[in-house]
């Protein structure tokens, strides 16, 4: 019996779309098939989960520290955050196209969707791409102006914006307990800003970019869900289009902001070390999307959120130790409030969804009452 080649092409994208569905909705995929990994021995599954979570932590933390070096290093002295972001998008585009070519040359060996530019699809993806560009740009600008230790607090309002936008755009209400956790996050954010100001290390510019980055992260999740059907539910196709469009839109920004002129006088422009670090940053940017999906696949969306919160805590501690900073008790309290509020929100949402799944629908109640 022969397989339909079209079904083979759509198999990987559909799986990734289900992973994204779980990440956005915060619950299991109702159409998913039983995971074969559940049949594996407990120790093997535990080892796989530990490796995947470790890979996510190492990739994410390394990317933040490397980007901080590229954006605000006294030894590098490169004042071109848009160029750094542009180059990372370029690396991601090349990697996506390269993997697509390998998959076409070695079918069955490399699992990657076929990628080609379609102007009609690009027009449909354009609104999301603008949000995506804003998200990665504000993320990098926030990291440029604030320390790595404060970076997590500076970008901590994503959950709050998720709740706000869900109400404004989707008319979805939020429970009292979930709103309470958002209040804890906002309190931790303001306390962190206050303590950064008390220590003389507060950057209002970086904080503003952090708030804008949080807003764009929330908008990106909403628009991603809306645009995914345009690319047949393929995360990699969407990644490819987003980064291609980003590369095109970044070019006029580089001219307008004078960063191309600044690059002409950059001392290390011909340094192999500089381009190696830039390329490595692009590789981490490409890898973070893959390891995020991998962690969700081997654990769950809720566990992924908890892992991300724990990772942020470890990242903050490492930053304080690495940069030899001294922080006050209230500064650490602000971080704990942000991390605790985020974890509590994840737990509350998970508990609420589990409760909804367990409650029978009204139609089922009517049917059961009709039975003799």
Topology:
Layout: H1 5-25, H2 42-72, H3 81-105, H4 119-145, H5 148-154, H6 158-170, H7 176-198, H8 204-227, H9 235-256, H10 259-264, H11 272-298, H12 301-322, H13 329-358, H14 362-370
Helix pairs in contact: 2-4, 2-11, 2-12, 3-9, 3-11, 4-8, 4-9, 5-12, 6-8, 7-13, 11-12, 12-13
Overall structural class, as computed from helix and strand content, comes to: mainly alpha
Identify the overall geometry: globular
Name the beta content range.
under 5%
Count of DSSP-assigned helices: 14
What average pLDDT do the residues reach?
Answer: 84
Order of helices and strands: HHHHHHHHHHHHHH
Estimate nothing, just give the exact number of structural domains. 1
Q: Termini distance?
A: 48 Å
Stretches where pLDDT is under 50 for at least 5 consecutive residues are 1-38, 366-372
Total strand count, please? Answer: 0
What Rg do the Cα atoms give? 22 Å
GO cellular component, one term: membrane
Transmembrane segments: 42-66, 78-104, 124-142, 149-170, 176-193, 205-223, 235-257, 269-291
Protein name: GDP-fucose transporter 1 isoform X1
Main location: membrane
Could you describe the 3D structure shown?
The protein has 372 residues and is an all-alpha fold. The chain has one domain. Helix content is 77%, strand content 0%. The protein is built from 14 helices and no strands. It has helices at 5-25, 42-72, 81-105, 119-145, 148-154, 158-170, 176-198, 204-227, 235-256, 259-264, 272-298, 301-322, 329-358, 362-370. Helix 12 (301-322) runs antiparallel to helix 13 (329-358). The chain is globular, with a radius of gyration of 22 Å. The model is unreliable at 1-38 and 366-372 (pLDDT under 50). It comes from Phyllostomus discolor (pale spear-nosed bat). This is GDP-fucose transporter 1 isoform X1. One of its GO terms (cellular component) is membrane. Residues 48-328 form the Sugar phosphate transporter domain. It is a multi-pass membrane protein.
């Amino acid at each position: 019996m022969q397989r339909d080649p079209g079904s083979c092409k759509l198999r990987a994208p559909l799986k990734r779309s289900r992973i994204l569905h779980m990440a956005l909705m915060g619950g299991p995929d109702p159409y998913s098939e039983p995971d074969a990994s559940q049949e594996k021995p407990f120790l093997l599954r535990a080892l796989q989960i530990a490796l995947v979570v470790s890979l996510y932590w190492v990739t994410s933390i390394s990317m933040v520290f490397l980007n901080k070096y590229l954006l605000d290093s006294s030894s590098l002295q490169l004042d071109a955050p848009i160029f750094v972001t542009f180059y990372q998008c370029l690396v991601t585009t090349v990697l996506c196209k390269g993997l697509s070519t390998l998959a076409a040359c070695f079918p069955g060996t490399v699992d990657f969707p076929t990628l080609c530019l379609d102007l009609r699809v690009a027009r449909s993806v354009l609104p999301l791409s603008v949000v995506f560009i804003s998200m990665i740009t504000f993320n990098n600008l926030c990291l440029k102006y604030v320390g790595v230790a404060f970076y997590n607090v500076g970008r901590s309002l994503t959950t709050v914006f998720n709740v706000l936008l869900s109400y404004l755009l989707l008319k979805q209400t939020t429970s009292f307990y979930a709103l309470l956790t958002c209040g804890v996050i906002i309190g931790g954010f303001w306390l962190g800003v206050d303590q950064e100001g008390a220590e003389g290390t507060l950057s209002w510019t970086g904080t503003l970019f952090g708030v804008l980055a949080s807003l764009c992260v929330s908008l990106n999740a909403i628009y991603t869900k809306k645009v995914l059907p345009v690319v047949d539910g393929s995360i990699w196709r969407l990644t490819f289009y987003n980064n291609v469009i980003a590369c095109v839109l970044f070019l006029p920004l580089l001219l307008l902001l004078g960063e191309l002129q600044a690059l002409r006088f950059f001392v290390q422009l011909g340094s192999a070390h500089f381009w190696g670090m830039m390329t490595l940053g692009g590789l981490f940017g490409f890898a973070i999307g893959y390891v995020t999906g991998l962690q969700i696949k081997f654990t769950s969306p809720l566990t992924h959120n908890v892992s991300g919160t724990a990772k942020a805590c470890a990242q903050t501690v490492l930053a304080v130790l690495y940069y030899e900073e001294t922080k006050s008790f209230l500064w650490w309290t602000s971080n704990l409030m942000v991390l605790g509020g985020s974890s509590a929100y994840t737990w509350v949402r998970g508990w609420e969804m589990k409760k909804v799944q367990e409650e029978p629908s009204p139609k089922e109640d009517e049917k059961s009452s009709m039975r003799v």
